[in-house]
């Protein structure tokens, strides 16, 4: 009798393992829409864990009716009940008790003001003209200080990316190329300029840059015009 029960349990977990699918998703900050790196994603049933990459992406084995648990220092822990295996976009809320950030308003992205406390807590060294050198060990070595510096770097990267997006976006690319769909998406990944390069270009330079990039893109073989991640899903 015990052997039969044991076999049934083993069979159940075997079926569960086989039927599990790889669920993909992205985790972002609810207010700033920053992609969150190093978020721990746990399957509440299997206890399998995954960590988000620099783009906030993760993949984990799970099936519908299971619960995913999201944890990130400085954020409120959250859960998600899986209804299906479609890609997930999970928003996490900054824990204001951990970092007393100011309220985010629906206006231009200005992290120095909108996340003033993050910038203040990230500053462990203070240098000012005619002022003594100041070093704050508590801010530098504390968990709060480390999180603030890491989050500040994300805010600075996001500020740069948004500056690029103002001039290099779908509307602009479509003005000078006939690209649509997956090819448009991958073109924008391949030829996205750096902020340094973009700052050297005026509107006419941007026009010729896009036209030259499209000529180069058009000459690529078909398999090189689509993201490898999309090709692997076919």
Q: Please, could you describe this protein's structure?
A:
Keywords: Signal. InterPro entries: CarboxyPept-like_regulatory. This is Carboxypeptidase-like protein. Residues 1-20 form the signal peptide. With 234 residues, this protein is of the alpha+beta class. The chain is 43% helix and 17% strand. The chain has 10 helices and 9 strands. The protein has helices at residues 2-19, 111-114, 116-122, 137-141, 143-167, 170-176, 181-190, 195-199, 203-218, 228-231; strands at 21-29, 40-43, 49-51, 57-62, 67-71, 78-81, 88-92, 125-126, 134-135. The protein has a 4-stranded antiparallel beta sheet with strand order 3-2-5-6, with no helix packed on it. Helix 3 (116-122) packs across helix 5. It is flat, with a radius of gyration of 23 Å. It starts with a helix and ends with a helix. Mean pLDDT is 79; it is low at 14-18 and 100-106.
Task: Give a quick rundown of the structure.
The chain has 10 helices and 9 strands.
Helix content: 40-55%
Order of helices and strands: HEEEEEEEHHEEHHHHHHH
Q: Profile the largest sheet.
A: 4 strands, antiparallel
Low-confidence blocks of residues:
14-18, 100-106
Question: Could you tell me the mean pLDDT?
Answer: 79
User: What's the alpha carbon Rg, rounded to whole Å?
Assistant: 23 Å
Strand content: 15-25%
Number of H/I helices: 10
Shape: flat
Number of strands: 9
- What separation lies between the terminal Cα atoms? 46 Å
> What structural class results from the helix and strand content?
alpha+beta
Strand order across the largest sheet: 3-2-5-6
Keywords: Signal
Signal peptide: 1-20
Protein name: Carboxypeptidase-like protein
InterPro entries: CarboxyPept-like_regulatory
């Amino acid at each position: 009798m015990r052997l039969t029960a044991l076999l049934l349990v083993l069979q159940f977990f075997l079926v569960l393992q086989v039927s599990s699918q790889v669920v993909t998703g992205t985790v972002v900050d609810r207010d700033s829409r920053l992609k969150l790196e190093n978020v721990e994603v746990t399957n509440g049933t299997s206890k399998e864990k995954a960590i988000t990459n620099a783009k906030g992406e993760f993949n984990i084995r799970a099936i519908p009716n299971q619960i995913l648990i999201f944890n990130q220092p400085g954020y409120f822990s959250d859960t998600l009940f899986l209804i299906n295996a479609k890609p997930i976009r999970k928003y996490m809320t900054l824990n204001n008790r951990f970092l007393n950030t100011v309220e985010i308003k629906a206006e231009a992205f200005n992290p120095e003001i909108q996340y003033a406390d993050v910038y203040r807590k990230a500053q462990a060294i203070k240098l000012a003209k005619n002022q003594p050198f100041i070093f704050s060990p508590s801010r530098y070595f504390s968990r709060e200080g480390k999180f603030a510096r890491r989050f500040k770097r994300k805010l600075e990267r996001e500020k740069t990316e948004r500056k690029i997006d103002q001039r290099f976006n779908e509307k602009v690319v479509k003005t000078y190329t006939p690209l649509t769909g997956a090819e448009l998406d991958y073109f924008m990944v391949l030829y996205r300029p750096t902020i340094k390069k973009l700052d050297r270009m005026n509107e006419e330079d941007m026009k010729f840059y896009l036209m030259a990039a499209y000529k180069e893109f058009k000459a690529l073989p078909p398999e090189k015009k689509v993201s490898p991640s999309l090709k692997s899903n076919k």
